[in-house]
Specification:
The protein has 7 helices and 6 strands; from the N terminus they run αβαβαβαβααββα. It is of the alpha/beta class. A 6-stranded parallel beta sheet has the order 2-1-3-4-5-6, with helices on both faces. It is globular, with a radius of gyration of 17 Å.
Length: about 250
């Protein structure tokens, strides 16, 4: 790539990053100020498929995912939020234990977890350690750093440094492969928070043409993937798209 090509790429990435952070900033403010009832999406008029449980990312209140909750509920899915996580700044093991406890306390069964970023680590650890009754049928994750992120070294907070590639929880989850066949890992074609993201190798690895870490939450294809998982046959081991699926424009910039 020549000098002009490098400049053009930098300009594109700057634009993608600005749009991504603008969306995240808007959702943080809206999520923090929201007075929406976190349980309002649990009882759709004509429920279909498995219930969905939303697991947000680090520093994301439950209402950060409110637009996604609204879209899934419009498809007839019962959507459960986790206001118990607060802003999701606690360690992953603590959050995973909380998730497992909530599933039991609400008696939620045969659920599909829908997780953003850190939420996928929480969900996978809960599936491994805190779901003895296999209440979780499947999980769809969006931009989860399964192998960690080298950029976590740039942040002083414990909540973000937990994403270091050598973090004990990240390493331990990397060795837990049995539950991966129940995970559909969706990721952006370009994610500024997870450089060099690679396949999980689970039920399906889906690459969206969307750029950014947060903006894919607005991609209607995510809704379609979740709906497919929620409507999959009850006896199916894998509730997501076929392995290696690519949705949309998957070429790398």
């Amino acid at each position: 790539m020549g000098a002009l090509g490098s400049v053009a790429r930098l300009a594109r990435e700057t634009g993608w990053r600005a749009a991504d952070y603008a969306y995240a900033g808007w959702r943080q403010v809206a999520g923090t100020l929201a007075r929406d009832d976190p349980h309002r999406y649990e009882h759709p008029d004509r429920p279909v498929g498995r219930p969905v449980v939303l697991v947000p990312g680090v520093y994301e209140p439950w209402a950060f995912l409110q637009p996604l909750a609204s879209r899934l509920a419009a498809e007839g899915l019962a959507v459960h939020a986790l206001p118990e996580l607060g802003t999701n700044a606690r360690p992953v093991p603590e959050c995973a234990e909380l998730l497992g406890r909530v599933l039991q306390e609400r008696d939620l069964r045969d659920v599909v977890l829908v997780a953003h970023s850190k939420g996928g680590l929480i969900g996978k650890l809960a599936m491994v350690r805190h779901d003895p009754e296999r209440r979780v049928a499947h999980m769809v994750t969006v931009n989860t750093p399964y192998a960690g992120s080298s950029l976590a070294r740039l942040f002083p907070t414990r909540a973000v440094r937990a994403f270091l590639p050598d973090d004990p929880t990240i390493v331990a989850l990397g060795h837990e492969r049995d539950v991966d066949r129940r995970i559909t890992a969706v990721r952006s074609v370009w994610d500024p928070h997870i450089p060099g993201a690679r396949e999980l190798g689970g039920a399906a690895d889906v690459v969206l043409g969307t750029h950014g870490h947060f903006l894919p939450l607005e991609d209607p294809r995510v809704v379609r993937i979740v709906v497919a998982a929620a409507l999959a046959p009850a006896d199916a081991d894998e509730a997501g798209p076929s392995s290696g699926s690519v949705v949309g424009d998957a070429h790398h910039p």
